[in-house]
Design goal:
The chain is an alpha+beta fold. It is built from eight helices and 18 strands. Helix content is about 25%, strand content about 25%. α1 crosses α3 and α3 packs across α8.
Length: about 350
């Protein structure tokens, strides 16, 4: 698969909308492309695709290459057509070009090359859906159909620097309770004031333990709703907090700290999106560093949060372009990524 083939595949994919939970058309196209153009044996579960580089050998460790085909909705401020790949000079514009279609096609090209080589590990590529919404029909479903994975390389826009740790996520809904009364009289119990006390605690609380790679747990109140009319003391106030966790705390530990310090009811929406990462002495980290590239801890989340095994996040593009109007990828970034992935994986020993 040549670089030009890879770029043409990217252009074709960008022309097919694939908003999260509506990826069937793009999965259909890619399944057919991989089977007919590259002669891969492709399996499909929902809108997730996967393929083995060679016959599975249970005596070898297994490496998974993963990225996603879904996108967010386009912003209103796009000046170009988000669903038409537009090439201008060395840039390709289109929704999902940077996040994460450039990673998808670069991993496909590298996987296609590595299929012709002998490696000390089983190699699987898994192209998943619903990443942008952490959906249960995405990589979580895909992993149920794969053998034990020892290492995953998750393609996301990192400038080909390697994220060796990534924060997890917990969203909590909080309800402060008061007692209704007339605003003109000294009666009732104002739920807004109770909520404000809790929000002030959220703003100022510092978690004791700090991660060497991810820093501190970040707790941010992002939504608030309360009151029904100007002359009624509100008896309830609802607010939502976004918590970015490190490996130092479990979801349950953070939840218990909040519940012990806040007046409001605190209810988590989900406790499945874990902090993730890899031992800094892992061979793949050493191989990456030998290529004179940096490592870092990532505050943004990917499908790593749903992986219980060692994983890293690395791919072409820039995270700052993700979810932005007139999203683009540089052609040279894809060229570099294909060679990077091949060099990283060829000859890698992870035992």
């Amino acid at each position: 698969m040549t670089v030009n083939d890879t770029l043409q595949l990217l252009m074709q994919m960008l022309a097919i909308p694939s908003i999260s939970r509506d990826e069937a058309a793009k999965a259909d196209f890619l399944e057919t492309y991989l089977q007919k153009n590259l002669a891969w044996d492709v399996e499909r579960v929902g809108n997730n695709l996967y393929s083995y580089a060679s016959a599975y050998d249970a005596s070898k460790p297994t490496v998974l290459l993963n990225s996603h085909i879904d996108t967010v909705n386009p912003r209103d401020s796009w000046t170009k057509e988000p669903f038409a790949a537009t090439q201008e000079g060395g840039l390709i514009f289109g929704l999902g070009s940077n996040d994460a279609h450039a990673s998808v096609v670069s991993l496909i090209a590298a996987f296609d090359y590595l299929r012709t080589t002998q490696q000390a590990y089983n190699l699987i590529i898994g192209i998943s859906c619903e990443e942008e919404v952490s959906g249960k029909n995405g990589v979580e479903l895909l992993l149920q159909h794969l053998p034990k994975i020892d290492l995953a390389i998750v393609g996301e826009p990192t400038g080909l620097e390697m994220a060796i740790a990534e924060k997890g996520l917990m969203v909590v809904d909080c309800v402060a309770h008061g007692k209704a009364g007339h605003a003109a009289r000294n009666e009732g119990e104002n739920a807004l004031y109770k909520a404000l006390d809790d929000i002030d605690w959220c703003r100022n609380y510092e978690f004791e333990k700090k991660s060497p790679t991810l820093g501190e747990v970040k707790l941010t109140v992002t939504m608030i709703e309360g009151g029904s009319q100007h002359n009624v003391i509100p008896d309830t106030c609802r607010f939502t907090a976004d918590i970015r966790l490190t490996e130092c705390y479990s979801h349950q530990e953070v939840l218990e700290i909040m519940q012990a310090n806040m007046q409001a009811e605190v209810t988590p929406r989900s406790m499945r999106l874990r902090a993730s990462g890899i031992d800094s002495n892992h061979p793949i980290v050493g191989k990456h560093l030998s290529m004179k590239r940096d490592v870092f801890g990532s505050s943004t989340m990917s499908d790593q949060a749903l992986m219980s095994f060692s994983s890293v996040k690395v791919g072409p593009g820039d995270s700052a372009r993700s979810h932005s109007a007139d999203e683009y990828i540089k052609i040279v970034e894809i060229e570099e990524a294909i060679q990077y992935y091949i060099t990283l994986l060829d000859g890698l020993k992870i035992n």
